[in-house]
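Reply to dn_fold:

You asked what the input looked like. This is it:
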Amino acid sequence: MACPGQAEWETMPALSRCRRLLQVTGVWYRAGVMHCLSFLRNRALRPLPRGLSVAVAAMAFLAAAVLAASGPATAAPGGQLKVLLKGYWACEAMGDATAPPKPQPQNSFDVIADSSYRTAQGEAGSYLLLGETMTMTSGPFRGRSYILVGQGILHPVDAAGQRSTDRCVRQRSASAIGDDTGGES
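and this is what came back:
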């Protein structure tokens, strides 16, 4: 949506001008913000009553500041807000040189859209990943915490906050477990 033309602007009632300004500022980006703010300063705000002009200018400035600010979403003090890679996360008790890992299907889950997960029984929940710490916030695994290592390994955290030797490893699908190709097709 572009800035309204001067003729269009001058024929609008004051309240409509404010609504139009809010509609326009909601979709502006960096380059368009400076042009529209200049337009508002030079032409559009003059016909408005002084108190309303200041309020509209303040709203435009705030909208421009919000849109101009770029960077990852952060949540204080937990760190950068992230999401897990979608797919099946197979949980297992780590093995050693003499024994392979022991699958724990009761702890495995599928990561789906919108910071959500689904268990093998079809129950769903949500999670929150801040920095490298992931917490299940709802559903059957509510309260469980994990530490993300790289992009594809989660280690459960015990009640004392210590990383356990168990792990959940991202697979392409549940059928990839035990497949020597690692789920590659």
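The CA atoms of residues 38 and 92 lie 60 Å apart.
Hope that clears it up.
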